[in-house]
Design brief:
- The protein has about 500 residues and is an alpha+beta fold.
- It has three domains: about 90 residues; about 210 residues, no CATH class; about 120 residues, Double Stranded RNA Binding Domain, CATH 3.30.160.
- About 55% of the residues lie in helices and about 10% in strands.
- Strands 1, 2, 3, 4, 5 and 6 form a six-stranded mixed sheet that branches.
- The longest helix has 22 residues.
- The termini are far apart.
């Protein structure tokens, strides 16, 4: 047989009430039929059945009958819990408010209010009303996962702002990092990409703080690059503002970053020039990217010529390194040579003993030494046949003689020669005619300045055995007179002199 638990409860409650009544003197069994008791029992049954709202109303009608007031409050408390569980937050709030002070009703009422606002904020978030949702989540003061929602909303808003206000978007994303792992990973990826875009746009000051606070991909290396770019930019600003010493220190610390080293040399060259160390200045300007950095080519040419002018003023007449100056063009070279023509002429005249070299008188027998300027006599091509000529040039024009190589000069004199048989002497030995082709070429342009063929014969008819041919050649007068009555030597010498008029 199956027993209904509800009926058992009712029976137990009725017996309890009967026994309670019987324990009082003067109590009669008829008291069980008292209407309030009956209503009380009915209210208890509603309470037991979970009909808390109805039970509370019945207990309210009973007033102060027995423990009706306490059970009414208990019924409303449970009813409020039902409303809360069903999502009827307004009902729960009203129920808790009606029993304020009972148990933790005030706390439960606040919880219901928060849950109501939380549910509304979630709905706004889901429907895309992000700003309103964010305000409601913020008002909830950290209730449940409101902080998470605020972070995600901020993240979404930052993404929306990235095009119109990138700096503001970056600041917003910065504030969110570290909140949770998933969101931080997304933010780092966005910030890393944005910082790289800043670098591409040369906005290193904006990229630097992003890389500085990230341990993400190559952020550490990119941070160092940004820092160098900023330092380089500051160094340039200092240099352009005339703060040369401060800029020099910055460029020196940057080492080979971009063109910091050329700037170091450029500043050092300028210092040397200011101190009239023109040779050092020219050398440093030449070292800067082959003279192609800023105006270093022009400055090189300016100071190399000032250097050689300075050497003249100091009395240094060794010009062996002058003819082919790196980076100089023919126009500048010609101007400088023209400028120094008087010095060269004086040196030549002094070397020839024609006039005093030094102002106020000097000793022509001991002229200033002037060597290596402009002409190289290439005797090695035909050393034997032109020995007399080269010896004479060396003696007469020491200012033009260069003993090293044609790479250092502007003009090269060549004497290619050949000997041809022209007859037989009575003793059976052979006579020879020696032909000399004299050419003077501009080494810089390849242009032939002078060219003429000459013939050389023995001074007189000579008879000698074949074995002694060499001795006879040693006394040849190689150069015939020119058409204007000048000797071949005078003609060639005149051409050499004309090169510097």
């Amino acid at each position: 047989m199956r027993v209904c638990k509800k009926n058992v409860k009712k029976t137990i409650l009725a017996i309890s009430l009967f026994l309670a009544c019987a324990s009082f003197s003067g109590c009669f069994v008829g008291d069980l039929l008292d209407p309030k008791k009956k209503d009380y029992i009915s209210a208890i049954e509603l309470y037991e059945d979970g009909e808390y709202k109805k039970a509370s109303e019945r207990f309210a009608e009973l007033g102060e009958y027995r423990d009706s007031e306490e059970i009414k409050n208990r019924s409303l408390y449970h009813y409020a819990g039902q409303r809360f569980a069903d999502g009827d937050f307004d009902g729960a709030i009203a129920a808790y408010a009606s029993i304020e002070g009972y148990r933790n009703s005030s706390k439960k009422k606040t919880e219901a209010e928060n849950e109501k606002d939380y549910a509304a904020a979630v709905y706004m978030f889901d429907s895309g009303q992000h700003e309103s949702a964010k305000e409601m989540f913020s008002a909830l003061g950290g209730y449940r996962d409101s902080a998470d929602y605020i972070s995600w909303i901020t993240y979404l808003q930052a993404n929306e702002l990235m095009d119109s206000d990138p700096d503001g978007a970056v600041d917003m994303l910065f504030s969110l990092r570290g909140h949770n792992e998933e969101l931080t990973e997304l933010i780092n990826d966005i910030l890393y990409g944005k910082a790289n875009l800043y670098m591409d746009a040369r906005l290193y000051e904006k990229a630097l703080p992003i890389f500085e606070t990230m341990e993400y991909k190559e952020s550490a290396a990119l941070y160092k690059i940004c820092a160098k770019h900023i330092k380089y930019k500051n160094a340039l600003a200092m240099y352009e503002a005339g703060e040369t010493e401060a800029a020099y220190s910055e460029f020196l610390e940057l080492g080979d970053f971009i063109d910091s080293i050329p700037y170091v040399f450029y500043i050092e060259a300028g210092k040397a020039a200011d101190e009239q160390n023109f040779g050092e200045a020219a050398e440093k300007y030449l070292r800067i990217s082959g003279g192609l950095f800023l105006d270093s080519k022009d400055l090189y040419e300016k100071y190399i010529y000032l250097y050689y002018d300075q050497q003249f003023q100091f009395g240094n007449r060794d010009l062996s390194k002058l003819p082919l100056l790196p980076l100089t063009d023919s126009e500048n070279d010609a101007k400088w040579r023209q400028k120094r023509l008087a010095d060269i002429k004086n040196a030549i005249n002094a070397a020839e003993g024609l006039e005093d070299y030094y102002a106020g008188g000097g000793n022509p027998a001991n002229p200033a030494e002037v060597t290596g300027f402009g002409i190289y006599v290439n005797e090695r091509q035909n050393a034997y046949y032109v020995k007399d000529l080269t010896d004479k040039i060396i003696a007469d024009l020491p200012a033009f003689f260069l003993a090293d190589s044609p790479e250092k000069v502007r003009y090269v004199v060549n004497f290619p020669g050949s000997s041809e048989y022209f007859g037989t002497y009575d003793d059976g030995t052979f006579g020879y005619e020696t032909k000399i082709a004299v050419t003077i070429k501009d080494a810089a342009t390849g242009e032939t300045i002078f060219s003429k063929d000459y013939a050389a014969y023995p001074e007189s008819e000579v008879y000698y055995p074949a074995s002694q041919k060499r001795d006879v050649y040693a006394v040849y007068n190689f150069f015939e007179a020119g058409g204007d009555g000048k000797s071949a030597y005078d003609e060639i010498f005149s051409e050499l002199r004309n090169l510097f008029k």
